[in-house]
Queue: 2 jobs
Job 1
Amino acid sequence: MTGPANQAAVRRRNLSLVLRTVAARGQISRAAVATEVKLTKATVSTLVEELLTAGLLVELGVTRPGTVGRPGLALGLNDHGLAGLGAEVGVDHLAACAVDLRGQTRARVEIDSRNRGRAPEQVMTDLAALVRATEAEVRAAGLTPAGLTVAVPGLVAPDHGTVERVPNLGWFCVSAADLLRRALLTPGTPAAEGAAPTEGTPPGSAAELPIRMENEANLGALAELWLGGHPSLGDFVHVSAEIGVGSALVIGGQLFRGARGFAGELGHVPVHPEGPPCSCGARGCLERYAGEEAVLRAAGIDPARAAIDHPGPAGRMRLLAKLAEDGDPRVQRALNGAGSALGIALSGAVNLLDPQSVVLGGALADLAPWLLPALDRELHLRVTDRQWRPECLAVSSLGRNGPLLGAAHSVIHAVLDDPPV
């Protein structure tokens, strides 16, 4: 292809190349950018001026390159420019946050919310209130939201607007992005079909942003890739759990989605085919052994009572960690069984895919001291195509913050990939 369309595509690619180079280096001169991206200084100068005008870059002051020649002006990302909004729907909580172009968290809010069995319209109305509060805070700081991504604990259709299935919430084929947009347009009322915008909705508000729904496990894995402190980790399986068990696969630094976008349903891999029935309709799924409620029951704790006594995100996981730390034998046996079930399921993934590492994230990270011995033992026993090494099993430093941070950072990465210039 030749002509203007091709030239426009090359320009946008080069804008992204320059912006990502500055993002990777923190601060860098125009001349150094030209050297790294292998473009002429004149071309880079033109691209930089466009990015400065768009408010994506700022000049930080004089930098000395350490070589003969005039000092240049250092470039950096504008931390008062665009922001990425992220939100999360959990079984027992709702959250929202915002990050700037430099990846710094600028606002965050989280509430306890028992969402199981609630109508999606009600949940989205409550989530919209958190998004609006987050948006107001970042706008007051001089930032402009660029988009909104929402983490949900279930399958999301390729259109990234429809939530196909969330058994733990009772949601099936929910147009979640549309419901959230309506709730953002009509503060304080249910997100009813056909609701009209309220007066005073500011131009460029969250209601007018691109809204994407995404599986929470996928976002947790992306957060681990971008923020987890593993610069050489390009191929890994990320597994996390609260009520359910989710996983995601990163290959060559890219999220692997599968043919229909549903890859990573580790929680519904059968570990004991004749085991108890699962909410998905199968039997003996991993979720029935390593999910939150399964572990509570195995430890002799009533999940419903625990939900009342220990509400909020990861409340029951913290309870299990406390009891295990105190030496409760039933809890320790339950966690040992969960670790063994995780190891059985993950050994199949490791044998099939040969990843560099398995990363334990989400609330599972809080239980790692009691899960890892049995998990590692099963992997060592069952991974047959190579010798399993304990150092290949890692614990995420992000823990249960991963999906929410991944949601907000996914907006920033979209800006870096296609700068709005």
Job 2
Amino acid sequence: MSLTIAQIEATKQEFKENIARSGLSLDDLALVLNTTPDVIAQSIAMHPRRIEDNWIIRNFF
């Protein structure tokens, strides 16, 4: 399933808001999800290494 440009932007914003609301740093989030801050940052930018990375982060919140 492909997202529209509007959906991509909305998802990026949702990720940023949820991370800010959580009070977790990218390092903290990576530790909790057993990954690296780089993977988290790429997913937030909607350029995940693996397609499931975005879903894992989204489901965490």
